[in-house]
Design goal:
This protein is of the alpha/beta class and about 170 residues long. It has helices spanning about 10, 15-20, 60-75, 90-100, 110-120, 125, 140-150, 165-170, and strands at about 30-35, 45-50, 50-55, 80-85, 105-110, 130-135, 160-165.
Length: about 170
C-alpha cells in the first residue's frame, strides 16, 4: 500500500473524509486490491473479483487506452458525461485536458476502490473541480435521481458514458 495519506480530503470533502476514515470498506464483489505501476510508472490497481482479476487501467499506455475509449464513444462536448468508475482518475484527467469546461459525473460503485484510490494518489484534480461530481452508488435509479436533481438536462444535449472496461467486468 502507498504511504500517501488522504488527509487532504478533510478540507475539501469532510463528509467523504469521515466516511472513508470510519469505514472498513467491505464489498463481497471484491476479494483483494493490489497496487501496481504501469510501464509509464502511473498508479494502477488489480482487482480480484468473483470473475477473476482485472486491472483498472492499461498496464502499458493509459493515454492510448483513454484515446481509444474516447474515439469509440464519439465524444460530444455538449452532452453530460457520465464516467463509470473512478479508477485512479487517469481517464477523468484525460477528458478534462481535452475539454476543460465539460461537466462530468463520476459513478463509483464501491467504497473499496475509492478508499484505495484516495490513499494511492492525490484526487484533488477531480474533487476540487466544480464541474466534476462524484456519486458513490451501484443503484441506477439513484443515479438517475441524482442527475436530474443536479443537472438541467435542457442545457446538455443528452448523456454519454465513458466506461472503464474493467468496471464492466467487475460490476
Amino acid at each position: 500500500m502507498s504511504s500517501f495519506k488522504f488527509e487532504y480530503l478533510r478540507d475539501i470533502s469532510p463528509d467523504l473524509y469521515q466516511t472513508l476514515s470510519n469505514r472498513s470498506a467491505k464489498d463481497r464483489r471484491i476479494h483483494e486490491i493490489e497496487i501496481l505501476r504501469t510501464k509509464t510508472n502511473l498508479a494502477n490497481m488489480r482487482v480480484s473479483h468473483s470473475g477473476g482479476k482485472s486491472t483498472l487501467h492499461s498496464n502499458y499506455n493509459v493515454n492510448k487506452e483513454c484515446e481509444k475509449i474516447y474515439e469509440k464513444m464519439g465524444f460530444d462536448p455538449k452532452r453530460l458525461t457520465i464516467v463509470y468508475g473512478i479508477g485512479l482518475l487517469h481517464h477523468v484527467e484525460f477528458l478534462l485536458e481535452k475539454h476543460p469546461d465539460i461537466s462530468i459525473v463520476i459513478v463509483e460503485p464501491t467504497y473499496k476502490v475509492l478508499e484505495q484510490a484516495v490513499r494511492e494518489r492525490d484526487m484533488r484534480p477531480a474533487f476540487c473541480n466544480s464541474k466534476v461530481k462524484l456519486l458513490i452508488s451501484n443503484d441506477p435509479k439513484e443515479l438517475g435521481q441524482f442527475i436530474t436533481q443536479i443537472f438541467n438536462l435542457q442545457v446538455h444535449s443528452g448523456l454519454q458514458f465513458f466506461n472503464l472496461p474493467a468496471y464492466e467486468k467487475i460490476f
